[in-house]
Amino acid sequence: MANRYAETLIMNWDDLRYFLAVAREGQMLGAARRLGVSQARLSRHIASLEQAVGTRLFNRTTRGCTLTSDGEILISTAERMEAETQSAAQDLQKREEVSGTIRIGAPDGFGSAFLAPRLGRFRTAYPDLRIQLVPAPRSFSLSEREADLAIMVGRPTKGRLRVRKLVDYSLSLYAAKSYLERAGKPNDISNLMGHTLIGYVDDLIYTPELNYVGDVIKDWRRDIEVSTAIGQFEAVRAGAGIGILHDFMADGLPDLERLFCGATVKRSYWMVWHENQGVTRRVQAVADLIDAFVREDRQKFNH
What we know:
Blueprint: H1 2-8, H2 13-25, H3 28-35, H4 39-53, E1 58-61, E2 64-67, H5 69-97, E3 100-106, H6 108-115, H7 119-125, E4 129-135, E5 149-153, E6 161-176, H8 177-183, E7 197-199, E8 224-225, H9 229-237, E9 242-246, H10 247-250, E10 256-274, H11 281-296, H12 298-301
Parallel strand pairs: 3-4, 3-5, 7-8, 7-9
Antiparallel strand pairs: 1-2, 5-10, 6-9, 6-10
Helix pairs in contact: 2-3, 2-4, 2-5, 3-4
C-alpha cells in the first residue's frame, strides 16, 4: 500500500485535504461545514482518494466515520505533507516580505574579507532584496540613515539602538615569509622595535577599540601607517613589515607567518540597528543571515 501512496499522493493533495478534514472531525457533515463545501462534494473527494489508493479509508456508521487500518497509515503521511506544504508557503511568504534596499555598514576588514564574498548567498536567500555594502574604517550614524544595519567593533553605549553580539575575534602578529627571509625573524617581542612595523594612522583611528598596539608591546612605533585593515593586510602580505592582522583574514595563508602565538589581541563585533528598524522584516532577516554565516565559520575568528 505504501508504494501506491507514493505514486498517487502528489497528484491528489486536494483529495488528501478532504480526507484530513473527515479524519479530524470524525463525521462527513462536520468536515463539510469546516471546509465550507457540500457533503456531496466531500464524499466525491473521499471516493476519489479511496479509488486512487485502492482501499477503504473510513468505517462509516450512523455515529460518524472512523479510520480503517489503512486510513491510519495514510493519515501520518498526509499530515506530514500538510506540514511541509504549510512550511513551504510560510518560507515563500517570508521571502516575499524581504524586499527593498538595505545598507550594511561594516569595518573594512570584516566587510571586505568576510561579508563581500558571501553577498551572492544573500541574493540566493532573498532575491528581491537590494544590498548595499559599505566596508569603511569609520563609524556609521544609524539615526541619520547612513546604514540600516551596522557591524561595530565593541558594544555601543549611546543612542536608541538595538544591539546583538556577533562574535569575538582575535588579531595576531604576522609577517610575510619574504620579509622574514630579508630582515630576519624576531625571537622575542622586544626585538620587534628593530623591525619595520605597520599600523593604523594614529589620528584617523575612529574607535578606541582599534588602538590595540599597546596590548602587544607598549612602545610600538609605526614605521608604515595605513588607515584601513585591508590596507595593512596587503602591506604585510607584500613584505613591507610586521603588523597586527585579523586571524580570520591571515591565518593559514601560505605566504604569511604568525609570530608569537601568545601575543594575541581580543575584540568583539556587534550588530547594531536603530530601534525604529526593530520591526523591519529585511533588517531582521539580514541580521539573522549574517549571524548564521558567522556561526558557520566561528572557529576562524578566535585563536
